[in-house]
Each structure stands twice: as C-alpha cells, then as structure tokens.
Amino acid sequence: TFRRALREPIASHDTDYYNEDAQLGGAINDAVTMAGRVASWPKVLQALTKELNIDLPRLLTASVVKLQPKVANPVAVGAIALLSTHITELGLDNAAIGPTGLTMLATAIHRGAAPLRTLRLAGNVLCGVDKQGTGIYTADGLSKLCDAISSEHCRLETLDMRGNCIFAVGAALLGGALATNRTLTTLDLSDNNLHINGAASIGDALRVNRTLRELDLGENQVQAAGARALSQSLASNHTLRTLKLSRNKLLEAGATSVGELLRSTQSLKHLDLGDNGLGSAGATHLAEALRSNRSLVGLNLCNNHIKEEARLLFAEALKDNESLTELNLKDEGIGAALMAGAAAPPKA
Q1: How far is CA 243 from the centre of its chain?
Q2: Structure confidence by residue, pLDDT tens digits, 90-113
Q3: For residue 259, which of 267, 246, 271, 247 has the smallest C-alpha distance?
C-alpha cells in the first residue's frame, strides 16, 4: 500500500498517458517526485523513532501516535499511516503537513490501511494557504480526504481541522462527503474562513447526514445569512446534539434565525453563541424561543453585550423551560450578582 502511495503521481494516469511526446516533461517531474519520496521516507522514520525514543516495530503497532511539529513532515505522516495496521488515533496539530501530507493520509484511509478513529489536523495549512494569506490555494489534498471520508473503508469518528483556511471551496467538498459518510460523530471546522457559503454547504449536508453529533463552526464569518441557512437545514436534522457558532458576527438578525431553530428542534442540546454581537435585541429573540424549547440543556451567550433588562427576560423564560440547566450570560462590566440571578435554575 505504501509503495502504491509513493508512486501515486504515475499510477494515477492511464497506461497510455506518457505515450504522447507532449507528456515527456510531466513524466520526468513525476518520476523525480516519486524518487524523492522513496529516498526520504526510511531516513525520516529512523529520525522519528529516535526522537520519540521508540523502536520502529512499536511505532508501527502503536494505537495512538501524536507527533510534534519538529518531527512531523508529510513523508513521516504518510509512512506511519500507510504502514501501521493498528493506529486508531493520530495527532498532528500544527505539524504543517500541507496538501502533500494530507494526500498521503487520505490514501491510507481510503484503502483501509489504517483503522483511524480519531484524526487531529489543526493548523496544518492543508490547502496551501496560511492565516496570513501566504501560499497558493489547492484543494487537491482535501478532495482526496473527502473521497476517503465517503469510502466504505472510512472508520473516522472524530475529525479536527481547526485553523486550516479551507475556505468555502473546501466546505463544499466536505459537505459532499458528509452527505454520504456514516461514521463521523464529531467535526471541528472552526477558524477556517468558511463564510456564508461555506456554512450553507455544511448545512445542506446536515439535511441528510444522520451520524454527526457535534459540529464546531466557530470563528468563520458565518454572519446572519449563514446562520439562517444553517438553521433552516437543521430544522430537518434530528441527530446533531452540539452546535458551536461563537465569534461569527451573527448580530440580531442571526439570533432571530437561531431562535426559529430553537422553537422547532427536538434534538439540539448544547448551543454556543458566544461573542456574536447579539445585543439585547438578539437576546430577547432567544429568550422568547426558550419558552417553547424542550431539548436545549446548555446555552452560551457570553460577551454579547446583553443589558440587564434583556437578562431578566431569561429568568422569566426559564420558568416555562424545563430542560435548560446551563446558561452563560457572562459579559465584561456585568455584576456577578445579576449574572447569578439570570442563570439561576428555573425550579426552586
């Protein structure tokens, strides 16, 4: 399997691809790429075993592997994932594996080489562009990962892709994969510049997805329009339990849409709307919606500039609501006594 992945640049073409003279330059480049991979991976694995103070057999039979940025690189990642038949959790946060490493990981998942259940890829420049906008965007690696997620060999249950600048294009690809995936239960896409269209793509997938339980879309510039698209999609979803939308500039209009969702949902239990500029007007819409909601257990509304009058509306709403047990209204400049009163349990 690993050898097949190494020769992917050549193996991906039809058998007569290189027969044309025009492809000679491409053939040379592909051959150089493959040769470089073949030559480097044994040394990289040896360096890894030394750094991690573990012999190669133990490394390749470990069930949990977490690589630090200074020892992780695309070849090492691919080698471990493709060679190991035991690994269930792979931690690669901030390892900068890039599109190349993601492609090798996707190959391993797609072919069932590694029984991965948990994959952590936060801060890895997976699409070639970092948070400063440096680099050239490519969705090649992400596209292969989405193919893997959609495959029958996928066993992933938890996928963390925080801070990778996948943009709305990447969200559309992931949305397509989520529509058919039957294993993922936890997905973190926070801080990925998804914007309105990206949120809508994920929402469309949730109309048909029946396995995802927790979704984090925080810090993605979702805005009110994105919140409306998500809320409309989730009205027909009965499996998502936790939705995180903090730091998305939802404002009052976004709160109105989420309030409509709260009136209809019977499955959502935890909702994070912290730091969204909802204001007292937005909070009022949510307080009214809580009167008829019977599923929500926890609601985070911290840092939304909610004034005392609106806070007191929550105290009144909790008299009718029998499910909510955690309400966070913490805000700078608000007295602790007022917050405690607003967040008090509804029953004596």
Answers
A1: 12
A2: 888 988 889 988 988 888 888 776
A3: 271
